[in-house]
Write a structure and sequence with these properties.
Largest interface: A-B, 34 and 29 residues
CATH architecture of the largest domain in chain A: 3-Layer(aba) Sandwich
Oligomer: heterodimer
Number of helices of chain B: 12
Largest sheet of chain A: 7 strands, mixed
Helix content of chain B: over 70%
Distance between the termini of chain A: 19 Å
Radius of gyration of chain A: 19 Å
CATH superfamily of the largest domain in chain A: P-loop containing nucleotide triphosphate hydrolases
Number of helices of chain A: 10
Shape of chain B: elongated
Helix content of chain A: 25-40%
Strand order of the largest sheet of chain B: 1-2-3-4
Largest sheet of chain B: 4 strands, mixed
CATH class of the largest domain in chain A: Alpha Beta
Number of domains of chain B: 2
Strand content of chain B: 5-15%
Number of domains of chain A: 2
Chain lengths: ~280, ~375
C-alpha cells in the first residue's frame, strides 16, 4: 500500500490515519476528539485514533508527550476532559457498575513495573480477575493459572512464588499472564520491553506476536523499543503536537516531520531497520 | 445463533466414544458445567462412566483458553484428539496443548508434620534474629566509639532533627496520658486506703508508683508505638527504594548516617520525656488529691518531699535511657531487615513495636531485681 498523495502528509498536522487502514475491519477502540488536561496544562487535544481488531499498534512519542497518560485515559484511570472513547463499541463515558465490570473483563492491562499484588503469589495474582469476573471452581482456576504461567513462558514453579522473588523480566511476564487471565479482546501494554535485555525483549516480542496470532488479541502498546516496533507492530501511532498520527512503518519512514524523521532515521532507528 | 452456554454430548462413532462439544466455551460461560456434564454422561451410550479421548469441536462457536483447557481436561489431557472447524480454534487448541502441564500437585502435609516444620523454621529464624541483633548492637558500638574519636561523625544536625520528632512532638501525648494515669491512681488509692483511714498515703502511692514504674514505662510504650515504628517504616522504605544500598556504594555507612543519629536522639529524648511524664503524672495525682482528699497542692508536695525518697526518682530515670536505646535499636534493626516489597515494611513495623514493648517490660523486670539486690 503506497501513501496516498492527497493524504495530509505533513505540513498541517491533522492527525489521524495517514491513509485509511480500516479495510472494513471492526474498530475495537475508537477515540474521537479526545482532550486530556491537568489543570491548565493540556496534554492531548482533538486526538482521534482507531484501533482495528486483531492488530498490534505501537504508541510512540517524545518524553512528556503523554503516551502513558493516553493509555491511562483510555483504560479509565484519568478523567477525560472532552471527546469520547469507545471500547468494543461501548462508550466509556457514563459506564458504571455492572456494565463497567463487564467492559473491564474484556480488557487486559500490563503496567510498566508489573503492578503485581505483592502479598499474593503469581498464581493467585492471575486468579484474582478470574475469581472476580467468572464463577469457576478452585481447582480449575488453579489450572487456568498454571496454563497462563506456561503461556507467557515462565517455568511452572513460578506460580507459587511471590512477586518479590522474581526478576524484572519475569515480573513483566507474570504481569502479562495476569493481563491475559480472562482472555481479553483488547490488551494494553505499557513499555513492556523497557528494562529487559535485548534477548529477553526479543523473546517478549515473539511472545506477543504468537499470542496475538493464537488468541486473536488486539494490542495497544506504549513502547520506545524500535526493535519491537519493527518486530510486532502492524501500525505505529506517533504522538505529535497533542495528537496522534497513525501509519505503517513504511508510511512513517516517508513521513515528513522533524521528530518522526529523527526518530525513525536516527542511528538507532536505522540499526533497527537494518535488522528487521 | 450463538449458544450462550457450552453444550456437551457423548456419541458413539465408528466404535469409539466421541465427546461432542458446541456453543460458547469461554471463561464466563463455564459456570454450572458440572451439571451439564453429569447430564451428558447419563445420556451417554457408555453410561455414567463415559469417557472419550476424541473430541469433536466443530460446533463450537466461541472459544478461549479457559474453554479449551476445560475441554481438554474432560478428554483426559493434552493428548486428546481434537477436530475443529475453524483454523483459529485449531490454533488455540495447539497453543493450550503445548502449554498444558500436569495439574499442579496439591501438596498435602499432615497437621503434625506441618506444625513441626513451622516450629523448626520459627526457632531457626529466632536464633538468626538474635545473632543478627547482637551483631547489629556490636556494629553500633563500634561506630559509636569511632564517632567519639571524631565527634563530627555524630551528625548533630540529624540528631537534633530527630529529637524534634521524638521528643518535642511527643510532649503533648505523653503529658496527657501520664496526667490521666496519675488521676486514676490517686482516685483508686483514696478509695482503697480510706478503708484503713490511711488515705493520706495516696501521696506515696502516686509518687512511688509514678517515679519507679509508671512514668517511665508509659513513656517507653508511647515512644515505642510512636517513634520506634516510625524508625522502622522510614528505614524500611529507604531499604525498599534501594536508598540504603545507594548509601553503601557511595561509601556512607548506614549505621553512622541512619541508625546512630536516631539512637542518640532517643537516648537523649527518653530521659527528658520520662521526666516530663513523671511531673505531669504527679500533677494529675495532686489534682485528684485536691478533689478527693481536700488537700491543697502545697500539702501534697510537702508530704511528697517528706516521705518519698529521691532514689525512687533516680531508679526510674536510670531506666529511661536504657529503654530509649533498646527501642531505637530494635526500630532501626527491623527497618534494615526489610527486603523487597512494601508489604514487608508493614510486617516489620508491627514486629518492631511488639518486640520493643516486650523488651522494655522484660528489662523493667530485670531492673526491679537489680534494684532489689542493691537495696534502693
Amino acid at each position: 500500500m503506497s501513501a496516498d498523495e492527497d493524504a495530509p502528509a505533513g505540513r498541517t498536522l491533522e492527525g489521524g490515519q495517514l491513509v485509511d487502514h480500516g479495510d472494513g475491519r471492526e474498530v475495537v477502540l475508537k477515540l474521537r476528539d479526545v482532550r486530556t488536561q491537568f489543570g491548565d496544562h493540556v496534554i492531548h487535544n482533538k486526538l482521534d485514533l482507531d484501533v482495528f481488531r486483531g492488530e498490534v499498534i505501537g504508541l510512540v512519542g517524545g518524553s512528556g508527550t503523554g503516551k502513558s497518560v493516553l493509555l491511562r485515559t483510555v483504560i479509565g484511570l484519568n478523567p477525560l476532559a472532552r471527546g469520547s472513547i469507545e471500547i468494543l463499541g461501548q462508550n466509556t463515558r457514563g459506564v458504571h457498575g455492572k456494565a463497567e465490570q463487564r467492559l473491564l473483563a474484556h480488557i487486559g492491562v500490563q503496567f510498566q513495573d508489573g503492578a503485581l499484588f505483592s502479598s499474593l503469589t503469581v498464581a493467585d495474582n492471575i486468579i484474582v480477575p478470574i475469581r472476580e469476573h467468572a464463577e469457576l471452581d478452585e481447582p480449575f482456576m488453579q489450572a487456568i493459572a498454571a496454563l497462563k504461567v506456561a503461556l507467557v513462558g515462565l517455568p511452572p514453579d513460578t506460580g507459587d512464588k511471590k512477586p518479590s522473588e522474581l526478576s524484572g523480566g519475569m515480573r513483566k511476564r507474570a504481569s502479562l499472564a495476569r493481563a491475559l487471565a480472562l482472555d481479553p479482546e483488547l490488551l494494553f501494554l505499557d513499555e513492556p520491553t523497557a528494562g529487559l535485555d535485548p534477548i529477553g525483549a526479543a523473546h517478549y516480542d515473539e511472545l506477543i506476536g504468537q499470542l496475538r496470532q493464537s488468541l486473536g488479541l488486539t494490542v495497544l502498546m506504549v513502547t520506545h523499543d524500535l526493535d519491537s516496533l519493527h518486530a510486532v507492530c502492524d501500525r505505529i501511532a506517533v504522538l505529535l503536537d497533542k495528537r496522534v498520527v497513525v501509519g505503517t512503518m513504511e508510511e512513517m519512514l516517508a513521513y515528513d516531520h522533524p521528530w518522526v524523521r529523527e526518530y525513525f532515521h536516527g542511528p538507532r532507528g536505522r540499526a533497527a531497520l537494518k535488522q528487521a | 445463533m450463538a449458544e450462550p452456554h457450552p453444550t456437551i454430548r457423548y456419541v458413539e462413532r465408528g466404535g469409539t466414544s466421541v465427546l461432542e462439544v458446541g456453543g460458547t466455551w469461554t471463561v464466563f460461560s463455564l459456570k454450572g458445567l458440572r451439571q451439564r456434564l453429569d447430564k451428558a454422561r447419563r445420556a451417554a451410550p457408555g453410561g455414567s462412566k463415559a469417557a472419550a479421548s476424541t473430541v469433536d469441536a466443530t460446533k463450537v462457536e466461541r472459544l478461549d483458553t479457559a474453554g479449551v483447557l476445560e475441554i481438554l481436561q474432560l478428554a483426559g489431557g493434552p493428548k486428546a484428539e481434537v477436530k475443529t472447524a475453524e483454523p483459529g480454534h485449531a490454533e488455540l487448541f495447539k497453543v493450550v496443548k503445548d502449554n498444558m502441564h500436569e495439574p499442579p500437585r496439591p501438596r498435602h502435609v499432615d497437621f503434625l508434620t506441618h506444625w513441626l516444620e513451622e516450629l523448626g523454621r520459627d526457632l531457626i529464624d529466632l536464633g538468626k534474629q538474635i545473632a543478627n541483633l547482637c551483631a547489629f548492637v556490636g556494629e553500633i558500638i563500634v561506630v559509636f566509639l569511632e564517632a567519639c574519636l571524631s565527634p563530627k561523625r555524630f551528625r548533630i544536625g540529624t540528631v537534633v532533627q530527630q529529637m524534634f520528632e521524638v521528643w518535642v512532638k511527643a510532649l503533648l501525648i505523653v503529658g496527657v496520658l501520664t496526667f490521666l494515669i496519675g488521676v486514676v491512681i490517686a482516685y483508686q488509692g483514696v478509695q482503697q486506703l480510706r478503708q484503713f483511714g490511711a488515705e493520706t498515703f495516696t501521696v506515696e502511692a502516686v509518687g512511688i508508683g509514678m517515679f519507679r514504674e509508671l512514668g517511665v514505662l508509659l513513656t517507653a510504650i508511647i515512644v515505642a508505638g510512636r517513634s520506634g515504628s516510625a524508625f522502622t517504616a522510614q528505614i524500611g522504605t529507604m531499604q525498599v527504594n534501594q536508598e540504603v544500598d545507594a548509601m553503601r556504594t557511595i561509601g556512607l555507612n548506614p549505621i553512622e548516617w541512619l541508625v546512630l543519629p536516631r539512637i542518640m536522639a532517643l537516648l537523649l529524648s527518653m530521659p527528658l520525656l520520662a521526666f516530663w511524664g513523671n511531673m505531669t503524672g504527679l500533677l494529675g495525682g495532686a489534682v485528684a488529691c485536691t478533689i478527693y482528699l481536700d488537700f491543697t497542692l502545697v500539702q501534697f508536695f510537702d508530704r511528697l518531699r517528706d516521705t518519698v525518697g529521691i532514689w525512687h526518682f533516680y531508679t526510674g530515670m536510670i531506666k529511661a535511657p536504657v529503654f530509649g536505646f533498646i527501642i531505637a535499636a530494635i526500630g532501626c534493626f527491623e527497618g534494615l531487615q526489610v527486603r523487597g516489597s512494601a508489604e514487608s515494611v508493614g510486617q516489620l513495623t508491627t514486629r518492631s513495636v511488639v518486640e520493643s514493648i516486650f523488651c522494655v517490660i522484660v528489662l523493667d523486670a530485670v531492673f526491679s531485681i537489680i534494684f532489689l539486690l542493691a537495696n534502693v
